[in-house]
Design a protein that fits this description.
alpha+beta, Arc Repressor Mutant, subunit A, four-stranded mixed β-sheet, three-stranded antiparallel β-sheet, 7 helices, 7 strands, 25% strand
């Protein structure tokens, strides 16, 4: 979906990195290494996104750090587009609908860090969770998200996780 609208794969990776959660940040060489891309390709896209106002730049230890500009009028919309692109909205809808007493759904792992690794890890916290149902909906969610899904139940919430439903809204 997003690839057909934005033809630069590097730009899509950067949008996922910075807009899955506003807490994510990165610098040129670190992003180039993380995405296995040339520094020139990353620099070009960082400049475009910064000039458009979507990213903020800040000098930290002789490096320029980038992060999402949460004050940009399009910030929330871009974040929603990224969540939809990753299939996170569909996961939350499917899980909450028939799960039992769900208190919190938390995105953990690579995607919480903004890394599009191909496996979405979700922690579901609650009581009387219908795990049989969740295991049955994983193939549907995989089809929607085009990524593999790994569900965990009642793990302690992490400081790096992103709360998608319930709990205290951290990171979103």
């Amino acid at each position: 979906m997003l690839e057909s609208l934005i033809t630069s794969k590097t730009r899509v990776k950067l949008l996922v990195k910075f807009f899955v959660t506003s807490a994510n940040s990165g610098h040129l060489r670190g992003l180039a290494s993380e995405f296995n891309e040339s520094t020139n390709a990353i620099r070009k896209e960082l400049n475009h996104l910064s000039e458009a106002g979507y990213l903020q730049k800040k000098e930290v230890s002789n490096k320029i750090a980038y992060k999402a500009n949460t004050k940009h009028p399009m910030f929330q919309l871009l974040q929603q587009v990224v969540h939809k692109y990753l299939g996170l909205d569909a996961i939350v809808e499917q899980v909450v609908e028939r799960m039992g007493n769900v208190q919190t759904i938390e995105l953990i792992g690579d995607y919480a860090k903004g890394i599009d690794s191909g496996t979405i890890e979700i922690n579901i916290v609650g009581t009387d969770i219908n795990t049989e149902y969740t295991e049955n909906i994983i193939p549907k969610i995989k089809d929607i998200a085009h990524r593999s899904i790994c569900l965990y139940y009642n793990k302690p919430l992490t400081k790096d996780g992103i709360v998608l439903f319930g709990g205290e809204e951290r990171g979103i």
